[in-house]
Specification:
2 domains; 462 residues; globular; TIM Barrel; Urease, subunit C, domain 1
Length: 462
């Protein structure tokens, strides 16, 4: 029998919706065989004993801010993808709010070339909308995921929601949707009602000196989250009219979840991202850690609604981390004025562990975790069946996890450059032990074993 690159033995792998005991053989970066216990096996260059562990398809995180080029004091391709590898992520997709912004064909080509020299895991990219919308046709030919729109600009700061990327006019947004529909591009949108947010800030918070982390949360959740819900409604209506394939980022309200469900049932081509941080961070965490847990993540009014969405909307909901690190100095000012602090935190390394812990608590099944972190993202964005599934011929991407192992999350374990962790001190049960990308171990027992440049750009199929 032909020799294998890697053999994973004695684990329970997620295959066709269930966990079954199987031995997995890898050759040339692909899954070459799935053998039942007792079957004769070829020799292998490396054997991994996964006894007592679960073998998941590698995670796909379609919302990672790698900060390169332009903001590498916060994060870079290598540190972001090392954090991804440590967390079981085998394909990470970064965002356009870098400098220069990736909102032209020339910049996107340069961005892909740079990332290919520095990433540890496989990658893709969300570019921003070009000034000439007809250029979307050529941009999509670069096999990127689609077009990413920020429906906002920051107030009191100029990053991470940069002026040159903010689309604040509904007519302009509608034109982008129509162009994306014309050229077959998915359009992902960060939802925000800029006019309403500025009204609330300037009328109810700033004049009274309300600028603390708690005030920031209360502002964005003012009137039972009307800043978000009005944006969700506008986006879904424009998506319905334009016919675009629409990916709603940061779904985080009870009413938003209902609107997405109704729109999907009515034929709108919508998928929705739920951020892991919204599922776990609470106002108690804001009181304790202030700016270090905040950004787009502000604790939702009804966190259970997000868990209900995760557990009941199999065709529309998926998880993206919004991994968004910043330098400590850019966060510390938030204790006095959260509007001046750069919004975001590092999430990609720990979110799988948080969900595994939730599975151990009975809040979600392990099968559902696989669906929302791997299988559904692969199918939605055109990576399936190359990614997101354990079957012969697919890429040998795996997160091998121990559901019984426990650890305490600390910043010292993190690979992100930023040097803090929003989940500092949290005790969890269930951790990734190995991460394999195309059959090669890139993380083992928390240590990164791959070198920068191993990760490849993975094109989407449309």
């Amino acid at each position: 029998m032909e020799r294998l690159q890697t053999l994973i033995m004695n684990g329970e792998a997620y295959i066709k919706g269930d966990f079954v005991e199987v031995n997995i053989g890898v050759r040339d970066g692909k899954i070459a065989l799935l053998a039942a216990p007792g079957e004769e096996l070829p020799p292998a260059d490396r054997v991994i004993d996964a006894t007592g562990m679960k073998v998941l398809p590698g995670l796909i995180d379609t919302h990672v801010h790698m900060r390169e080029p332009g903001f590498t004091h916060k994060e870079d391709f290598t540190t972001a993808t090392m954090a991804a590898a440590a967390g079981g992520v085998t394909l990470a997709v970064d965002m356009p709010n870098v400098k220069p912004s990736t909102n032209s064909l020339e910049r996107i080509v340069e961005h892909k070339k740079l990332a290919a020299t520095r990433c540890v895991v496989d990658f893709n990219h969300w570019p921003g909308p070009p000034q000439n919308l007809a250029e979307i046709k050529d941009i999509i030919a670069e096999d990127v995921l689609g077009i990413k729109v920020f429906m906002m600009n920051d107030t009191k700061r100029s990053y991470p929601h940069m002026p040159e990327l903010g689309i604040l006019n509904d007519g302009h947004l509608y034109d982008i949707f129509r162009a994306c529909e014309k050229y077959g591009a998915i359009c992902a949108v960060h939802p925000h009602n800029q006019e309403l947010c500025e009204w609330i800030e300037q009328r109810y918070f700033w004049p009274e000196g309300k600028t603390s982390p708690q005030d920031y949360c209360n502002c964005l959740r003012y009137g039972d989250s009307i800043i978000y819900d009005t944006a969700f409604a506008t986006l879904l209506i424009l998506a319905r009219s334009s016919g675009v394939r629409f990916h709603l980022l940061h779904l985080n309200t009870y009413l938003g979840a209902k609107m997405v469900k109704v729109a999907h049932e009515d034929g709108v081509k919508v998928t929705a991202e739920i951020n892991a941080s919204h599922c776990f961070i609470t106002m108690d965490d804001v009181l304790k850690r202030g700016p270090y847990v905040l950004g787009t993540c502000t604790p939702p009014k009804d966190q259970q609604a997000l868990w209900d969405t995760i557990n009941t909307l199999p065709f529309t909901a998926l998880i993206g981390t919004d991994h968004a690190p910043h330098h400590i100095d850019e966060k510390e000012i938030g204790w006095k004025d959260m509007w001046k602090a750069h919004g975001g935190a590092p999430y990609v390394q720990d979110y799988l562990s948080l969900f595994l812990n939730a599975a151990n608590q009975g809040r979600v099944t392990l099968s559902r975790i696989v669906e929302i972190t791997s299988e559904i993202p692969a199918k939605v964005f055109g990576f399936y069946p190359r990614k997101g599934v354990i079957r012969t011929g697919s890429d040998a991407d795996f997160a091998i996890v121990d559901m019984n192992r426990e650890r305490t999350i600390t910043k010292d374990q993190g690979y992100s450059k930023c040097g803090y962790n929003p989940f500092e001190g949290w005790k969890i049960k269930g951790i990734p032990v190995y991460t394999l990308v195309r059959g090669t171990v890139v993380m083992e027992e928390g240590k990164i074993t791959a070198t920068p440049g191993y990760g490849k750009f993975i094109p989407v199929s449309r």
